[in-house]
Amino acid sequence: MILGIPKEIKVLEARVALTPTGAHALVEAGHTVLIETSAGCGSGFSNEEYAAAGAKIVSHADEVWAKAEMIVKVKEPQPVEIARARPGQTIFTYFHFAADRALTEGMLATGAHCFAYETLQDGRHLPLLTPMSEVAGRMAVQEGAKALQAPQGGRGVLLGGLPGVAPSNVMILGGGVVGTQAAWMAAGLGANVYIFDVDLERMRYLEDVMPPNVTTIYSSRGAIREMLPHTDLLIGAVLIMGARAPKLVLKEDLKLMQNGAVIVDVAVDQGGCIETCRPTTHENPTFVIDGVVHYCVANMPGAVPRTSTFGLTNATLPYVLRLASSGPKNAVLNDPRMATCANVLAGKLTHSAVAKAFDMEWTAATEVAATL
Question: For 4-30, b where at least 16 C-beta lie within 10 A, e where not — what string?
Fold first, then answer.
């Protein structure tokens, strides 16, 4: 199969979907790999490294999209890329369809086959979402700590405090991968950390592995509102696989928070779990509502592209190889994991959570694949 790796064009997105080592593995498996020139430069990979791995360097994105049977990306296609997609072409990337109706309708209209990293399930795990969730969870604390500084509009507090000065309070909504990584980081800096979740089994696990300055709290509307006045940094880390994130903090709740408190909503890719969240970019990452600083960058791992690209390729390469070798039809029919990440096939929506987000009709991926 001919695979295309275009340069990412989302604002300040420097990740690339494939390392040179990954390209070599695909070439060794008998595939042709087309890399748009300079696609890997932001992650520290030169054209020469890809060429040495057996990939072919292509001068323009139009050529990559026109020649490739399968496109492998990092972020969701931008409008100009949607226009380049064609019927029968396979696209494998993070889509986050449930947060973007225009993207969903745009990709349905192309007739392309859309496989989403974030919905691929292996048992209860989301193996292709995990590495970027790990990055985002750790970055949420770094960025939140920075936003708390007075020059950034924050309260002017240090997360870990000082001898004789109380540490800050960090509230984390969700105890999954993002929340766990954020808790480790915040706790390591000395903050008082509170993880809110509704999974008692998960909370028992977190109580066992977390340091003493981390507390788990059963999440409810009342419990969240009770904690908000004491919160310096609030991290939204809620995930419902493939679906829009529930709104756990409403605009009216902001009045309970201290002036200069900070919200980092990592769930922004799925619509955000804070009502006042709206996607921002690394160029302009924050905004203020009711005195509360909001950081809602939709591609946080893009700020550390080299680390993120290695982590992403480590996770995605086995599935890229499987999809390229089998093709979309056989991949869906013969591998239940690949069926879980098939969100759109031949102009039909094939994921129930996305359909629910927009009240649209959907058809099971295996049913559509059988007709391809």
Answer: bbbbbebeebbbbbbbbebbbbbbeee
Active site residue 96: yes
Which member of 96, 113, 294, 351 is catalytic? 96
CA atoms within 13 A on the CB side of 81: 23
Say how many CA atoms lie within 13 Å of 298 toward its Cβ: 20
pLDDT digits (tens, 9 = 90+) for 160-199: 999 999 999 999 999 999 999 999 999 999 999 999 999 9
User: Is 230 known to be catalytic?
Assistant: no
Query: Largest Cα–Cα distance of the chain, in whole Å?
Result: 69
Mean pLDDT confidence for 23-47: 97
> Which tens digit of pLDDT belongs to each residue from 42-55?
999 999 999 999 99
Owner of token pair 């000082």 = 162
Of 197, 253, 265, 269, the catalytic one is 269
Of 275, 297, 296, 294, which is closest to residue 148 (Cα–Cα)? Answer: 294
Structure letter (DSSP) for residue 258: P
> Token pair of 271, please?
């619509």
Give the gyration radius of the chain's Cα atoms: 21
| pLDDT at position 115 | 98
Cβ–Cβ under 8 Å, residues 264 and 140: yes
How many Å apart are CA 358 and CA 283, to the nearest integer?
Answer: 30
pLDDT of 242 > 80? The answer is: no
Is residue 113 within 8 Å of residue 92, measured between CB atoms? no
pTM: 0.88
- What domains appear along the chain, each with residue ranges and CATH number? 2-120+305-369 (3.40.50.720), 131-303 (3.40.50.720)
What's the rounded Cα separation, in Å, for the pair 224 and 221? 5
